[in-house]
Amino acid sequence: MSVIYLLITISIFVAIAFLIAFFMAVKSGQYDDDYTPSVRMLFDDETARTQSRNHKAKSVNQNTTTNSEKE
User: Fold this and answer.
1) Which helix (H) or strand (E) holds 24?
2) Which residue ranges traverse the bilayer (predicted)?
3) What is the phi/psi pair of residue 28, to 5°?
């Protein structure tokens, strides 16, 4: 019977230790944003393509205006 009291006491201390560790992790900001980093890797290529398209469109517009100015 004394082993049960010992195991219950040890399990309570372990539970308290995990609770303290959880609160410390939350306080340090470890759980602030856990969705965006996992999704960011899926959309990096798409944003790079969009930026390159915008850059190409700007350069085409600039070439068009400089050609019309020359005439």
Assistant:
1) helix 2-27
2) 6-26
3) -80, -5
Domain boundaries, the chain: 1-32, 34-71
Q: List, in order, residues 6 or more apart from 25 with CB less than 8 Å away.
A: 31
Residues 6+ apart with CB under 8 A from 31: 25
Residue 26 main-chain phi, psi, to 5 deg: -65, -40
To the question of pTM greater than 0.85 for the whole model, the response is: no
Kindly list the distances between the CA atom of residue 65 and the CA atoms of 51, 61, 71, in Å, as whole numbers in the listed order: 21, 6, 10
